């Protein structure tokens, strides 16, 4: 019983600093992320005035907190462009609900990519993006030109949503290579469709997209969690070793005491 109490006390002492860090007050970046999320929820609900208010509030808070000092020039540029596009689309009366949701989602994913180093929200777009791409590939295989252009437009619209946040999370050369391949597919869509190498081009792009999501998923685990696991494991092993040594020593001293008494 004493041993279990000792293990519990040691575990609590070593894990307490980690717990206190996790429970601290939200940082300014996280607060801005929450505002971006609320703006998206309002947009999805069709409450555009509330969404517009939140987007303006985001801009005000960003300026007041001088958060631009925490970001690189590229990060600031991507965030500013996505925010302006979201606000502009919300204000356009001729923009449909899908356009508004897509624009604010794009901004939301960018802010999430800046505030979270693990499990970025954009990887949740894998299924709809790959489903749209499979539609492009299927149409190309069947040679259906009209369906091919329709499916390609759908794929491009979905990729456009995550493209800015991807740039924030992957190496520059990888992002540029992926953009170049997709731009080529867009600008030379009919040529690609009619080319004998069309399927090879699409297969290469498919491989790049799968590689994009697979690599990011491998980086999801927070290293601080592994630190706690390793530290806790070390504490328990050390405690067990010490208790075992004390028990062994006690057993060795018992016969010696009895001999002295005799």
Q: What are its keywords?
A:
disordered N terminus; 2 domains; 11 helices; 83% helix; 262 residues; mainly alpha
Query: What is the CA–CA distance across the termini?
Result: 33 Å
- N-to-C series of helices and strands: HHHHHHHHHHH
Q: What is the number of independent domains?
A: 2
Strand proportion, as a percent range, falls in: under 5%
Helix content: over 70%
Which shape, going by the Cα principal axes?
Answer: globular
Which class do the helix and strand fractions yield?
mainly alpha
What kind of assembly state do the chains in view correspond to? Answer: single chain
Number-wise, the strands total 0
Could you report the average pLDDT, rounded to the nearest whole number? 80
Number of helices: 11
Task: Report on the biggest sheet.
Answer: none
- Unreliable stretches: 2-24, 221-237
Radius of gyration: 28 Å
Would you give an account of this structure?
With 262 residues, this protein is mainly α. The protein has two domains: 27-116, no CATH class; 120-220. Helix content is 83%, strand content 0%. It has helices spanning 2-22, 28-44, 48-64, 73-91, 97-115, 126-142, 145-169, 172-187, 189-194, 198-218, 223-261. The longest helix has 39 residues, at 223-261. The two termini are 33 Å apart.
């Amino acid at each position: 019983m004493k041993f279990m109490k000792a293990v519990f006390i040691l575990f609590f002492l070593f894990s307490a600093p980690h717990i206190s860090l996790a429970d601290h007050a939200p940082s300014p970046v996280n607060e801005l992320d929450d505002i971006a999320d609320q703006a998206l929820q309002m947009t999805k609900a069709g409450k555009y005035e509330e969404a517009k208010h939140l987007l303006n509030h985001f801009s005000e808070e960003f300026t007041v907190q001088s958060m631009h000092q925490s970001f690189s020039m590229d990060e600031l540029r991507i965030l500013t462009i996505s925010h302006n596009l979201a606000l502009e689309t919300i204000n356009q009366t001729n923009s449909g609900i899908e356009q508004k949701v897509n624009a604010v989602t794009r901004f939301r994913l960018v802010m999430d990519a800046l505030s979270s180093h693990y499990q970025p929200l954009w990887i949740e777009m894998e299924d709809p993006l790959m489903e749209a791409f499979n539609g492009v590939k299927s149409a190309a295989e069947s040679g259906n030109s009209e369906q091919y252009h329709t499916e390609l437009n759908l794929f491009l619209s979905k990729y456009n949503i995550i493209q800015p946040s991807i740039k924030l999370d992957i190496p520059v050369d990888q992002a540029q290579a992926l953009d170049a391949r997709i731009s080529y597919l867009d600008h030379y869509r009919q040529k690609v469709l009619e080319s004998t190498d069309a399927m090879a081009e699409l297969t290469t792009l498919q491989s790049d997209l799968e590689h994009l999501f697979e690599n990011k998923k491998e980086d999801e685990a927070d290293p601080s969690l592994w630190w706690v696991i390793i530290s806790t494991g070390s504490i328990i092993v050390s405690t067990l070793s010490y208790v075992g040594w004390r028990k062994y020593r006690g057993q060795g001293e018992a016969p010696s005491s009895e001999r002295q008494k005799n």
